[in-house]
C-alpha cells in the first residue's frame, strides 16, 4: 500500500473504531455486542492457537531449561572452584604436616646420635647425571657442605655427598650399585659391608660366615675413619633374607633399607660428627609384642543321678 493521505486517514479511522469497540466491550461486560464475534473467532482460531502453543511450549521449556542450566552451570562451576581451592588447601596442609613430621623425626635422630646437621631439601633427581641413583639438594659449599659427608633423614641413612657447588650438592643414594658402606649388627656387633642394588634390598657381606643372623635383625653404619664419608650409628635397615651358611669365610644377607629413596624430601647433611659412637641408640624402639589373650577353661562336672531335681508338687 502506498503511503498516501487517504491511507493515513484510513489507518486513523481503523484505530479509532478499534478503541471504540474495546471501550464498548469493557463497559458492556457479558452483554457486549462483540461477544458473538469473539466466540466465533475463538471457534475458528482456537485449534490453531492450541497447536501453536503445543509446538511452542517445548521450545519455551527448552529455552528456560537452557537458561536455568546456565545458572546451574555457573553455580556448579563456582562450587567446583571452591571445592578445588579447599582440596588444594587441605593438600597443602597435609604436605606441610608431613614435612613437619619428617623434620621432627630427623631432628630426633640427630639428637639421639649427637650429629650436627645442616637441613636441606631435595630439589632434583639424578637422571641428568647418568644412571646413578642420585639426588640434588639445595645446600652447597656456602652452607658448609663438603664432599664425603653423610646424609640422613628421620628414617636412616640416605647416602653421601659426592659433588658440591656453591648453592647445591649431589648425593649418591645408599641403594646405588656403586654405593658401599660398613655395617654393624645390632647387639652382637657383627661387621659387614652393604652394597646398593637399586630397587632391591641391600646386599650385605658379613665378615663372619658363621655369624648367627635372622630375619628382623637390624643394622647401623659402622662409621669411617675421621667420620668421612660415614658417621657411625646411623640406622640402615632390617634383614629380610639370609643366605644359607656354606662354610665360607663370609655370608650374604639382604637388608630392607629404612629410607624410601623414591620419596625423599627433607634430609640432613652431617657437618659435625658425634664425639662418641652412638652404637644402637639411634635405632627406634622395637614395637612391644602383643600380650597373649588369656584362655578361660570351664569344666562342667556331671551331677549324681540321685540329686536330680524333683517336681515342686511332690
Uncertain spans: 41-50, 52-70
- What is the H/E order? HHEEEEEEEEEEEE
Main beta sheet: strand number and arrangement? 6 strands, antiparallel, barrel
- Could you tell me the mean pLDDT? 79
Span of the ends, CA to CA? 127 Å
Structural class: alpha+beta
Q: What's the shape? A: elongated
**What share of the residues does DSSP label as strand, in percent?**
15-25%
Instruction: State the total count of DSSP E strands.
Output: 12
- The number of helices is 2
* Helix percentage: 25-40%
Quaternary organisation of the protein chains: single chain
**Can you list the strand order of the major beta sheet?**
1-2-5-4-3-12
Instruction: Output the radius of gyration.
Output: 44 Å
Give your account of this protein's structure.
The protein is of the alpha+beta class. Helices cover 33% and strands 24% of the residues. It is built from two helices and twelve strands, in the order ααββββββββββββ. It has helices spanning 5-28, 35-113; strands at residues 116-125, 134-137, 150-152, 157-164, 169-173, 180-185, 191-197, 200-206, 218-221, 235-242, 251-257, 266-272. It has a six-stranded antiparallel beta barrel with strand order 1-2-5-4-3-12. A six-stranded antiparallel barrel has the order 6-7-8-11-10-9. β4 and β5 form a beta hairpin. The longest helix has 79 residues, at 35-113. The N and C termini lie far apart (127 Å).
